[in-house]
Amino acid sequence: MKTTLTFIFSILFSGLIFSQTNVVINNLIPRLDIDGAIIDAHDGRISKFGNKFYWYGTAYGNNSGFTRNNFFQCYSSPDLMNWKKEGELLVNKPIGTYYRPHVIYNNKTKKYVLWYNWYPKLWDGKYGVAVSDKPTGPFKIVSTDVKVLNSKYGVGDFGIFVDDDNIAYIAYNTIDGHKGSIEKLKNDYLSSTMDNGGFITDGCEAGAIFKRNNVYYMLTDYTCCFCTQGSGVRVYVSDNPMNGYKFKNNINRYPGTPATTLIDDVLSPNIYSTIKKQQDNSFSPIQINFSKDSQLNGLKIYQFTGNRYMCCDTTTVKCKADIVLPEFELFAKQNGEWVKIQIKTQVEATSVYNIIDLKFEIIASKSLLLKVSNNYPYEELFINKIKLYDGEKQLSIKNNDAISFINDIDPMIARPIIPSQQTFVMPLKTNKGIEYVWMGDLWGSASDNIKGHDYQYWGSPLVFDSNGNIETMKWVDEWNTTIVEK
Q: Roughly how many angstroms between the first and final C-alpha of the chain, as a whole number?
């Protein structure tokens, strides 16, 4: 009897301190509050205080975003799905244009602190700070012109991060040059210490900073200005919250022009991709990205030997340019870096193709890069197909298993994968541990063209490899997770 009671008590006790909620996130339908209205909260963040999530954002209503009608409002939810409108945050604010509300909690002062970016006139950028005893406000303004080290250049978009030791930092960009840096705040979070780590980026905005496994991540990219195409997400990492950041990759830009015919099931002579020589005499590389690690030990490259245009007359000995066999180099992405693979080459010449067979030791990778040697004499090379092999077995590419690109575009300005502008990276406690949800505004996405109805994209949790590198994002219509509460 005693054992049974102990068992029942253990179950009840564990239920009191541990609960799970299944959450479904859909990126194709508007997010509504519990009254059925479309949520109007943008370019802010979601913070969790106690057992509730608080969504802080700029409300735009039906304006362009550049008017003085913008204001901050808050919604609360127990589960990221059912949102209650809590109302406007700031009281007695001066006339101006307002953006980017971020609310954090100070354990020492027991105050909720709101930082925001505002403009008495465009583009005279300033930071304001306000405090409240409650996460829903109203917030009372402490200062409308909080100085940071680079205030003289004007200040714009920013993110706020509170470290494990309760020290807070602001990652912000200037208006002049959009230069990005990170600065330490004072203990009360109401002002800056002016301790700044130096400029990390330029021409960028919408910075977000978070920490994982003692590594600091700063994410940002080029200015977007309510753009409908979205912006990229450059990843910078450091073991220090303010400086020492190194660029790793851009997780929200395609690596070039999609070349779907290269790895599909169709092989026909006049269906080919054109690889062109660039200004530096190199050829645009071919990149193949897999949805998961794939084991490979061989490629067969089908080079089309037709399409060799050449003017000729009756006295010309040769009427076509010579068929030249290109040389290739192969690289695989391993631990976030491109590693050259040693290859052995065999060639079979047929009526319309050179079939170039590359053999190598078996590798496991999510990305391959194929480069044409600079000594290929022509300005263009025609590739019909690249077949991929694991042993003697050809890999069958289905659905979204893999996608191929010709890297003929500057990767810093290539087309974004998610057509969204970054707003925040939300740490989320799930049954898999702490996961990180990338969030962005899909400007111009509302079917009624009302800015306040524009959607937000909440990505499935970021994926990290064994070395902490963030893998390239992909659009997800809907995903689910289990959030835990203790």
A: 29
Within 186-264, strands assigned E span 192-196, 204-212, 215-222, 234-238, 246-250, 257-258
Sheet strand arrangement including 246-250: 204-212, 215-222, 234-238, 246-250
Q: How far is CA 301 from CA 263, 371, 385, in A?
A: 10, 12, 6
- The structure tokens listed for 8 are 């029942």
User: How do beta strands 478-485 and 52-59 pair?
Assistant: unpaired
- Can you tell me the distance from the alpha carbon of 371 to that of 85, in angstroms, rounded to the nearest whole number? 54
- The residues of the chain scoring below 50 in pLDDT are 1-16
Which helix (H) or strand (E) segment holds residue 11: the answer is: helix 2-17
Phi/psi of residue 148, nearest 5 degrees? -120, 175
Structure tokens at 343: 């290859």
pLDDT digits (tens, 9 = 90+) for 42-88: 999 999 999 999 999 999 999 999 999 999 999 999 999 999 999 99
Tell me: the pLDDT tens digits for 304-360? Answer: 998 876 666 656 666 778 899 999 999 999 888 899 999 999 999 999 999 999 999
Which residues, in sequence order, are CB contacts of 449 under 8 Å at separation 6+?
A: none
Query: Which residue from 171, 105, 173 is spatially nearest to 134, judged by alpha carbons?
Result: 105
- Please give the angle made by the CA atoms of 431, 437 and 443, to the nearest 5 degrees: 150
Rg (C-alpha) for the chain, rounded Å, is 27
- Return the structure tokens found at 106: 């100070």
**Predicted local confidence at residue 4, as pLDDT:** 40
Kindly state the tokens that stand for 227. Answer: 């753009």
Domains of the chain: 17-253+414-485 (2.115.10.20), 257-308+317-406 (2.60.120.260)
Q: Over the range 5-39, which residues count as b (16 or more CB within 10 Å of their CB) and which as e?
A: eeeeeeeeeeeeeeeeeeeebebeeebebeeeeeb
Q: Is beta strand 168-174 parallel, antiparallel or unpaired with respect to 180-185?
A: antiparallel
Determine the distance from the C-alpha atom of residue 354 to the mean position of all C-alpha atoms in its chain, rounded to a whole number: 39
Which among 451, 455, 454 is positioned nearest to 64, based on CA atoms? Answer: 451
